[in-house]
């Protein structure tokens, strides 16, 4: 689900909190040593994102925010800010020449450059949180 979050909207905040949980408190953020990533360059995105990304030669950036039950990906188009809400049960990560996040029939591939390498600890936290979330549901295959 992608929302226009350029302006604060009570309905959008409630929807985000229902899907991925309330933001971490300051104490929890300090304990986790941060819950946000540095901005990363979007190298490729699914065609579903075309209306939400800059279509001219501008570079598209995104940053990620960890929530208790999911992930928020924020990116800009001009002066508008869009947020892609991904609950953990939809999230799939691939690490192929950068990193690729897939969910809900969409994907974003981040470029493998220095900013991506600076976010290595964030991706480790993200994978750990997703594993903890999946562990509470005992899947016997």
Draw up the topology in text:
Layout lengths: L1 E3 L5 H11 L5 H7 L7 E6 L15 E7 L2 E8 L2 E8 L4 E3 L4 E5 L2 E5 L3 H5 L1 H16 L6
Antiparallel strand pairs: 1-5, 2-3, 2-8, 3-4, 4-5, 6-7, 7-8
Structural class: alpha+beta
Shape: globular
- What summary fits the major beta sheet? 8 strands, antiparallel
| Cα separation of the termini | 29 Å
Neighbour order of strands in the largest sheet: 1-5-4-3-2-8-7-6
Return the string of H and E elements.
EHHEEEEEEEHH
Helix content: 25-40%
- DSSP strand content: 25-35%
| Uncertain segments | none
By DSSP, the count of extended strands is 8
Radius of gyration: 15 Å
What is the helix tally? 4
Average residue pLDDT: 91
Walk me through what this model shows.
This protein has 141 residues and is α+β, with helices and mostly antiparallel strands. It is built from four helices and eight strands, in the order βααβββββββαα. The chain has helices at 10-20, 26-32, 114-118, 120-135; strands at residues 2-4, 40-45, 61-67, 70-77, 80-87, 92-94, 99-103, 106-110. Strands 1-5-4-3-2-8-7-6 form an eight-stranded antiparallel β-sheet. A hairpin with a 2-residue loop joins strand 7 and strand 8 (106-110). The radius of gyration is 15 Å and the shape is globular. The model has no long low-confidence stretch (mean pLDDT 91).
């Amino acid at each position: 689900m992608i929302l226009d979050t350029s302006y604060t909207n009570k309905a959008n905040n409630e929807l985000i909190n229902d899907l991925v949980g309330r933001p971490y408190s300051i104490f929890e953020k300090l304990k986790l040593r941060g819950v946000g990533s540095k901005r990363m360059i979007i190298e490729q995105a699914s065609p579903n994102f075309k209306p939400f990304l800059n279509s001219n030669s501008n570079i598209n950036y995104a940053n990620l925010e960890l929530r208790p039950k999911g992930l928020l990906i924020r990116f800009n188009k001009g002066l508008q800010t869009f947020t892609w809400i991904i609950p953990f049960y939809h999230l799939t990560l691939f690490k192929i020449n950068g990193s690729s996040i897939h969910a809900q029939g969409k994907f974003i591939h981040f470029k493998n450059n220095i900013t991506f390498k600076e976010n290595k600890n964030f991706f480790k936290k993200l994978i750990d949180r997703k594993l903890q979330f999946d562990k509470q549901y005992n899947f016997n295959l």
